[in-house]
Amino acid sequence: MSLLKNVLLILFISSIAISQSNAATKALTVDFFSLSIKLKYDDSILAKNKHCTSTPCLKRFYRKLDEANFQVLLDDLKEQKDILQLNDWLFYQLVRKTVGQLYPQESDMFHTTSTWFFMTKAGYNTRLLTSKSKYTFLCVYTEDKIFETSFVRFGKQRFVNLTNLYYKVDSRRIIFEIPRYQPGELRDKAFSFNMDTSPALPARTVNRSYHFDVNGEEISIDVEVDTNVNDLLKNFPQTLPLNHIQAKMSPVTMASLKDALAPHLKDKSPAEQLQVMVSFTRKAFPYLHDQRRYLRDDPMTADQLMLADTSDHEDRVALLYQLLKETTDLNFILVQYIHDDIITVGVELPEVIGRPFEHEGIQYTICDPTLPKNSSKLGNYPINLDKDIEILEVVNQRE
Fold this sequence. Notes:
The chain has helices spanning 2-24, 55-67, 71-84, 88-102, 108-121, 162-167, 228-232, 241-246, 251-265, 270-283, 290-293, 302-307, 313-327; strands spanning 25-32, 35-42, 126-131, 135-141, 151-154, 157-161, 205-214, 217-226, 332-337, 342-347, 357-359, 362-366, 389-395. By secondary structure, the protein is an alpha+beta fold.
């Protein structure tokens, strides 16, 4: 009988513990681009936490969150990162939006410091900077080359200022202080801005029409274009053009584009198919040099180009790159003229057209996506390609 009483007592205590645990766990809805994400959190992380920029205060702030049950929310955030196929930059934005929703009455500085805590616990190599005892800035170790923002070095590692990228602020003239308290380990894994996968977000689409001709034959196509990219990349930092070129297109946009082009590619030789593609990139998108429009280089991804009213040379390379990867099995190469900031494309064809570009014994036909202007010709160099060049990537699809 005593054994039965003990079992019942244990079950009773367990039920109380479970009930209390469930009572402490609450739900939060975060609007993240085209999706509303439901996240669980333990309300112990809402305990009052005084914020300031001194080292002792930051240490207390961090430790108070560390003593709370932060893991419930962190596990949900990491699960959403995997489900939605978010890169590090988009995951940071999800964390930042979540913190803002979690502490709506708190300051941006409080949000930055809370984001610092969660990003550190998520395994990123972080550092916190302060300025004028009024502001905090979250920095993270990266090996990516990012322009128009500030970096700080700790040992041999370089940390980029995520806070200023989020707010689109050029902080290179700001004087920072480095608090002595910096929790977390020095990790070798670098934060990445690469968009080598397309986020799995519900599409928001518009129908766009594109007009071009191939050797005088007029072609019009209608494409369903996912507009999520405009929001996703609104505050995306300026990186090397290759990162924008390699950014994978929205599956919805690519599928619609492939369907629209399919009748014009059917039963054609590889060279004839390439003529269709370069005619599309050369003629369907009005050209305007970035320096004239933005007073600086501002490369776009292929998705952005599909929605843009003007385009530059490397923007068209991004689109041709995606078309070659998604609609052909041809090997190709990306070549950059170092002093002219022009990137062009060479494709390995059964028969070379024009003067070939040779690399490691392979001859490539130049298929520049911009030049010759308003032409369908292949094999023409945009400028002299004999010197001052860099091979950006060799894509071997037939290995």
